[in-house]
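Minimal example, chain plus uridine-diphosphate-N-acetylglucosamine.
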Amino acid sequence: MEGRLINPVSGLPDTKNAPEADSSVLRVWGGHSLRGHVKISGAKNSALVLMTGALLCSGDCRIRNVPRLADVERMAQVLSALGVKIHRDGETLDVNAREFTTSKAPYELVTQLRASFFAIGAILARLGVAQMPLPGGCAIGARPVDLHVRGLQAMGAEVQIEHGICNAHVPGNKGRLKGAKIYLDSPSVGATETLMMAATLADGETILDNAAREPEVVDLANFCNSMGAKITGAGTSTITILGVSNLHSTDYEVIPDRIEAGTFLTAAAITHSELLLSPVVPEHLLPIIAKLQEMGVNVVEEAPNCLRVLPAAVLKAADIQTLPHPGFPTDMQAQFMTLLALAEGDSLINETVFENRLRHASELNRLGADIRVKGNIAFVRGVHSLSGAPVLGSDLRASAALVVAGLAASGETTIKGLQFLDRGYDRLDLKLQQLGAKIERVREVEADIAIATATNTVQPA
Ligand code: UD1
């Protein structure tokens, strides 16, 4: 990182002014056990949506425990473009939306970051009008926004999608949305959050049925309530929001990232290591811990916010079906596929949340895994070992899964596609290094030279 420009908001290399930052790769030498304590950062999916929630209030919002992520930087850029003042000091983000007057979000940024679309609810609630580019397709599936749109329409908004932009406005009622009874066809996290924010400042009561129950939805409700909103039932399938006329300043701390914690749990399990993780909310990790226990990995609650994972002699096969919370999280599916690749026996993974989220299987096979994919199902036949190779991450969690694989594979694994990893992990490589992993971030060109040299020195028999 030395000599690079650091972005003041994310704390990451400034990708705009340092084009080489995007082309860095990770080199991992597997087979080393990990030990010690890892500090879990604030939850990406909470921090991003809390930042959009800050649009609902015209006072100062202090958000603590904000992770250093490329996605946070992008979200900050979206908010700045709307006229919001943002200042970061370490893990504390101060957001002031007093002068937020622009209803048009910038196309180039929103199309890169799906969570920024969720701001449409807050923008519409505050200004009565919003112009939000569609978030665009994503590597893991089509990810439409129909549930967001239908919910806003039920609350009185007129919405038209033209030329890739979602134009919404509230006719009459002084531009104020009206409370409504809304049933979500599926418990979409983003739609629940968009509509919850919109309803916070609406006229009357909104009831969201079949709402998402993810911990990040609860965090957003708690954040809004800390500003004076009246939201009850978050964490259940029915959320009731009684609209208020305005919200006040707050000082709020983001919950720990359950997916980052889960990723470290799989890193410990695959290297047969003992690790301490904190802060965590063990309840948020129940489906992940249950699956690890089934595989023979013991996880104990050392303290109310601290977990100890113990090494397992053998990893056992297990079947996984991803589901909305409290089911097994789709955001942990790729990391578990890596773990199951080295388990004893056959496992089956059924990805039911996203339609195209098994692309890491082929990269794991490059490392020696035995995985067959048919539709949304992966058949994983456990192998005894993996061997390092150059691989490419296809999305955020797929990249993390390849890092976990690299920790166990013999020799060197080179992982490209770090622009995905840096979106959602707060300095994963540095944290792993501190735990004893042999991992380094280098410029792609240096890694390519190393790969070419290694290839040239291994002569075919
Ligand atoms: C959020 C998380 C993401 C996680 C996902 C599922 C953020 C920023 N991202 O994404 O990390 O993987 O939840 O836990 O919080 N759908 C529709 N219509 C809609 C909205 C969603 O059909 O209007 C579908 C999606 O295509 C997908 C499923 O519903 O198949 C679940 O998506 P959703 O829960 O909305 O995920 P996100 O909120 O985008």
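The chain has 15 helices and 23 strands. Residues 45, 48, 114-115, 141-148, 186, 188-191, 212, 216, 330-331, 353-354 surround uridine-diphosphate-N-acetylglucosamine (CB under 6 Å).
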